[in-house]
Structures are given as structure tokens and as C-alpha cells.
Amino acid sequence: MAATPPNELVSVGEVLISAEELQKKVSELGAQVSRDYAGKDLVMVGVLRGAVVFIADLLRNLTVPCEIDFMAVSSYGSSRDSSGVVRILKDLDDSIEGRDVLIVEDIVDSGLTLNYLIRNLQARDPASLEVCTLLTKPERRRVDVPIRYTGFEIPNEFVVGYGLDFGQRYRNLDHVALLPEDAVPGR
Ligand code: 5GP
Q1: Ligand 1 atom at minimum distance from 110 CA
Q2: Is the CB of residue 26 less than 8 Å from the CB of residue 129?
Q3: Among residues 57, 100, 106, 109, which one is catalytic?
Q4: Can you name the CATH fold of 15-182?
Q5: Per-domain residue ranges for the chain?
Q6: What tens-digit pLDDT sequence spans the chain (187 residues)?
Q7: How far apart are CA 88 and CA 75, in angstroms?
Q8: CB-CB contact of 133 with 149 (8 Å)
């Protein structure tokens, strides 16, 4: 008999947020964003790579016209802690001047990456600039950042799945899971 192939969709650790909870929340966020951006000129800016799954689902829950663009930044100094020094690895393809920009993040941890992104994008004179994040870890915040839409507040734990990785793995999980203690970086 052929060996069963390894299945990444089997959770690595405890399930923190199930696929059903994620889909319900994303549809609520999509409805809110659709209400708030009716008649506006919405551009969603996804932050690579972690926000890819979230932005794809959010997009399908919007009922208003919307464009998407992406930025890639490197934010982690060590394996776990942001240094606050952010490097742009990929910039937006299009100008956001005069447009209604919504930054779409996977997770806000210290807030340092988002703080940098907000300053950077604000300098390009958008008509408005707001933030939507799937996850936030309020306990870890080092800088206060304005977040208009939040999916879930989570405890100070390292999570993977639904776009979030550990060593580039686990992004394909349809849920958010905790990593087992011994695998957590920096612990
Ligand atoms: P911040 O600058 O807010 O400290 O870090 C934000 C970035 O750190 C996120 O976009 C994400 O790439 C990474 N990050 C923070 N916490 C976690 C976590 O629990 N799991 C994963 N996979 N990445 C995290």
C-alpha cells in the first residue's frame, strides 16, 4: 500500500481560530468595509507575504469596487522581535495619491512594521489611509497604531496558518494554530 502523503492541513498545534470562525469574521469585515467605502476609491494594500490569504478572502466579501496592490517589507530583526528597522523589498506598483487606501495586514504584534508603513504611505498623499488586520496581539504593542478594523485579538503566542508562517511553512492551513512550545522561535 502506498504511504499516506504528509498532510499540512492537519494542525501543527492547538487550533486557536477555526476555519469557520475565520470565514465568519472575514465576511463581517467585508460587509463593514463595503459599507464604509461605498462611493469611495478603494485600494487595498496587502502586506506580503502573510496577508495574502486574508486579502484574497476579504476581497471576495466586498460588494464595492476595489483595486489591490502589494508591498513586501522585512520587519523581523531576530526570529521573533521586530527591530523597528523596516526595509521595503517590493513597493506598490501604482500611485495611491488621492485614493482611499486600506492597508491589509495579517497580524500586528509590536506595531513597528505598521507604524513604518503608515508613515511611508501617508507621505504619498492618499485621500484616506486606514488599517485592517486579521489578528492583533495587544500585549506585545510597543507603539500605538490606529487600526480601524480588527478580526481577532489574540494572546501573546506565536501563531501559524491562514497565511502566517513559521520558516515559510504552514501558510496553507485553513485555520490559525499555535505552534508547539518547543518549536516557538526565541523561546
Ligand atoms: P510587528 O512589527 O508588529 O512586531 O510585526 C509584524 C510582523 O511580524 C507580522 O506581519 C508577521 O510577519 C510577524 N509576526 C508577528 N507575530 C507573529 C506570529 O505570531 N506568527 C507569525 N507567523 N508571524 C508573526
Answers
A1: 4
A2: no
A3: 109
A4: Rossmann fold (3.40.50)
A5: 15-182
A6: 556 556 666 657 899 999 999 999 999 999 999 999 999 999 999 999 999 999 999 999 999 999 999 999 986 555 566 677 889 999 999 999 999 999 999 999 999 999 999 999 999 999 999 999 999 999 989 999 999 999 999 999 999 999 999 999 999 999 999 986 666 655 4
A7: 9
A8: yes
**Residues composing the chain:** 187
Cell of 112: 513597528
Reply yes or no on whether 125 is catalytic. no
158: CA distance to ligand 1 center in Å? 8
Query: End-to-end CA distance of the chain, in Å?
Result: 40
Q: Whose CA is nearest to atom 4 of ligand 1?
A: 110
Best residue for ligand 1 mutational test, from 75, 136, 162 (most atoms within 8 Å of Cβ): 75
Q: What's the predicted TM-score (pTM) here?
A: 0.92
